[in-house]
Amino acid sequence: MNRIEEKFKQLKKQEETALMPYITAGDPTLGFTKKLIKEFEASGVDMIELGVPYSDPLADGPTIQQAAQRALSAGADLEQIFGLIEEVRTEVEIPIILMGYYNSFYKYSLQEVVSKAEEVGVDGLIIPDLPPEEAEEVEKFKNGDQLSSIFLLAPTSSEERMELVNQQSDGFIYCVSTLGVTGARNKLSSQLQGFLARVRQHSDQPLAVGFGISAPKQAAQVAKYAEGVIVGSAIIDRIAENLDQREEVMLKEVSSLVKRLKKAL
Ligand SMILES: O=P(O)(O)OC[C@@H](O)[C@@H](O)c1c[nH]c2ccccc12
After folding, report:
1. Is 218's C-beta closer than 6 angstroms to any atom of ligand 1?
2. Which segments does the entry list as coiled coil (predicted)?
C-alpha cells in the first residue's frame, strides 16, 4: 500500500474526508512552496497536489494561470521541483501528488519523470490531459506500486469512460465538479451528487472532488458524498492577495483558510 492508499484507509476509520490543497510549485518562489508544504502538514492537511507551472494551462482559470506565471518568472522548472520534493520529503510524511500537463512531462521525458518521482518520494501523478487510453505511457516505466496514477472524470463522462478510468486509476479518482476551468466559485453544481452516484456504480475507489470549492461550507457539503475535497484557486487567492507581505503573513493567511476547511471535513 502506498502513502495515498494508507491515508484514505486511515481517514475512513476516523470517518473523515481528506483535505487536498492544490498549489503551484514555485509560486511565488520554491522556497515559499517548501515552507507551505510543511505548514500544510502542521495544519492538518491530508495530501498535497503540487502543480508544475506551465505557460499554456488549458484547464486553468485566471488564478492558477497567474500563479504559474509567477512561478515561471521565478525560474521554477521540473528539475528544481524534484529537488524541492527530495528536500522536503526528509521532513514531512504527507502524500505528495505531482500534477502537470503532458507537455511539461513529455519535454523532460516520461521515463525520467516516473523514475525521478519514485526516487524523490512522490506518491501520485495527475496528468489532466493524458487520456486514460494512454495510461500505459506512464505505467510502463513504473517500478512497484509507490506511484499512483490518477485520472479525471467529469459530469459529462460516459459510462464506458467511468469504467476505463476506474481500471486505470489507483489511489483515487479525481471527479471534476463542474465543466469549465479551475477557479473559486460560490456555488456547488446541483449535478454533483448524481454524478458521484454514477461514478460509484463503476468504482469502489476513493473519490476526490475538485473545481470551484472555496469555502468550508461547500467543502462540508462535498464531504457528504466524497472521500476527498480538492481546493486550489481559493488557496492561491490568499497567496496572491498577500504578495506584498512578508512570507510569514502569507503562510498565516493560507493556513488559517486550510484549518477552517479541514474543520468542516
Ligand atoms: O482551483 P480549483 O477550482 O479549486 O480546482 C482545483 C484545481 O485547481 C487543481 O486540482 C488543478 C489545477 N490545475 C488543474 C488542471 C486540470 C485539473 C485540475 C487542476
Report:
1. no
2. none
Cis geometry, peptide bond prior to residue 62 (ω within 30 degrees of 0): no
Question: Ligand 1 center to residue 50 CA distance, Å?
Answer: 10
Atom of ligand 1 nearest to the CA of 182: 3
Where do the structural domains in the chain lie, given as residue ranges? Answer: 3-8+16-263
Nearest Cα residue to 94 out of 152, 153, 211, 11: 11
The CATH code belonging to domain 3-8+16-263 is 3.20.20.70
- Please, how many CA atoms are within 13 Å of residue 34, restricted to the half-sphere of its CB? 16
Give the ipTM.
0.98
Query: 177 in ligand 1 pocket by Cβ < 6 Å?
Result: no
Residues 201, 214: Cα–Cα separation, whole Å: 28
pLDDT tens for 89-107 read 999 999 999 999 999 999 9
Residues 6 or more apart whose CB falls under 8 angstroms from that of 77 comprise none
